Amino acid sequence: MTKYHAPKGVQDIYPPDIYLWQNVENVAKEVFSAYGFQELRAPIFEMTDVFTRSIGEDTDIVEKEMYTFTDKARRSITLRPEGTAPVVRCYVENRLYNLPSPQKFYYSGPMFRYERPQKGRFRQFYQIGVEALGTSDPKLDAEILIMLRVFFERLGLKELSYEVNSIGCEKCRPDYKKVLLNFFSGRIEGFCPDCKRRYEHNPLRILDCKVEACIKLRAGSPKMMDFICSDCRAHFESFLELLRLADFQYVINPSMVRGLDYYTRTAFEVTSKRLGAQNAVAAGGRYDRLVEEFGGPPTPAIGFAIGMERIVELLKTGNPQIPAPEIFIATIGAPAEKEGLVIASKLREKGMWVELGYAGQSLKSQMRRADRLSAKYALIIGDDEIRSGKLNWKRLSDGTQGEIPINEVLNFFKASS
Ligand SMILES: [Zn+2]
Ligand SMILES: [Zn+2]
């Protein structure tokens, strides 16, 4: 038993896996930048009401999953459970709406939810997301989905399913709610306690419940798609038309509702068959009313978030590119150690990754470390080499060896790398 251990539901990420993570982050930055998204870094904790009001009081997140605590000045603080509310809070607080629209941002970092740990689910999990604020043009909806596909394809993830839906707006959703209440009214008794409460406050949420009994009871329930207003329908139709124009394969999923209160109109989810029940790798949609709820001017907006853990899970089956040192300098004896450090400094100045042996390590253990790091070359320096002014080099991939004068080391590796 070790004395210290990480809290339940979190994971450490270190080499070699970290290179998968960095690759995903680099590709995201590259792709999103090409579409004009700029990075926004919001704090990882916010005043609690930033989340309770935007996400909705009746959601699982707010009811059960937030890491909320009182700070030393008795303020209620919450570790962010998602990335959209902080971006919108920042957008409104800093009056970014005064700049030309739309404003396009991406973010990445840890989110926190107190969930029951299970495969692929963590209490600290990572998301990369984008938010575009300031236009309701369906072209933006299409662009964002196309960008997401480019991102996944560049990572080599091609067998994904892109599901889309429209969940209406504040004009048409009340009618749908009435129809839904009507449908559910005779079945309330069978619902779980959460859904009984949802029936009173937000019946749409029942469509999202994961309890088996509730899933059965809602079978055959009316679909939002059949009740959306003509504006929402026109918006959805032109969104789909633009996708078709881009040869984009989508699937309409009329029973997809997004879990959070603030979503309107376009909703989408990207799923992989290779992941079990938790198969969504990205999800997003419009939230045309959220900026106003934060006290800003009417500002239609759209965004998505990508689940890093699940993407890394999918990428683990491939062969990750793991960086390796160019040169490992193994030394025997004190004069050689000094010479090794001088040579290493010169090579490192040129940007090469150079590793050194350290005091007390035998040549054998130094070479074992060079192998372990997959160094391309080893340079071996001992008293004889210092006397003769010539070093032995060895290419570790095939065992090729040779000799070079000390003063030509720099040129030799510039030419060979
Ligand atoms: Zn509508
Ligand atoms: Zn339920």
Explained architecture:
By secondary structure, the protein is of the alpha+beta class. Helices cover 37% and strands 21% of the residues. It contains 15 helices and 16 strands. The strands form three sheets. An eight-stranded mixed beta sheet has the order 1-5-6-11-10-9-7-8. α1 packs antiparallel against α5, α1 crosses α11 (308-315) and α5 (138-154) packs parallel to α9 (230-245). The model has no long low-confidence stretch (mean pLDDT 93). One zinc ion binds at residues 191-192, 194-195, 209, 211, 214.
Quick overview of this protein structure:
37% of the residues lie in helices and 21% in strands. The chain is α+β, with helices and mostly antiparallel strands and 417 residues long.
